[in-house]
Amino acid sequence: MDKILVIYYSFTGNSKTVAEYVKNKLNADILELEPKVPFSSDYDEVVRQWQNNDIKRDVEIKPVDIDLSKYNKIVLITCTWWYGISPVMKKFLKEYDLSKKDIIVASSNAGWIGHCFKDYETLLPNSNIKGELDLLFSANDGERNKILTTQKEIDDWVKCL
User: Fold this and answer.
1) Which of 18, 53, 84, 138 has minimal Cβ neighbours within 10 Å of its Cβ?
2) Quick one: which of 4, 153, 148, 25 has its CA closest to 76?
3) What's the structural domain count of the chain?
4) Cα angle at 92 between 16 and 59, to 5 degrees?
5) What whole-number distance in Å separates Cα of residue 109 and Cα of residue 94?
6) Rounded mean pLDDT of the chain?
7) What share of the chain has pLDDT > 70, as a percent?
8) What is the pLDDT of residues 106-155, one digit of tens each?
9) What's the CA angle centered on 69, arms 3 and 104, to 5 degrees?
10) What phi, psi does 105 have (nearest 5°)?
């Protein structure tokens, strides 16, 4: 029987909302990634610190207390940080081996997906990426938690696993 794990990092809560939906849809376990030192709640401060978010730059994360070898299917969901996957997800993928696992990946954003899927491919060279999803949320003030990606698109993506 397939064991599925949803792994996510969410700065604003949008990725978390989708991760919890996928967890329930697949009857999966879930793991939230967290930075060792929380990011500032001041958006402008985070921009100043992280607008140069390339594949080599990451952050220390809290240790993961889960046996990844028990899972053969993985769902990865993170937010987009300046055209790439979040530093938290990058650090996780650099430190933990997901080789030979079936994986679907998603990155939440407000219209600027950038090189997120290329980042996943680079950091998961020995994994089987079966599906990618651009989780699009509104860029309008006051509507930033409004998801524009349809329920059908999410459900079709989940079926890739």
Assistant:
1) 138
2) 4
3) 1
4) 95
5) 22
6) 91
7) 94
8) 999 988 898 999 999 999 999 999 999 999 888 888 888 898 899 999 99
9) 55
10) -125, 150
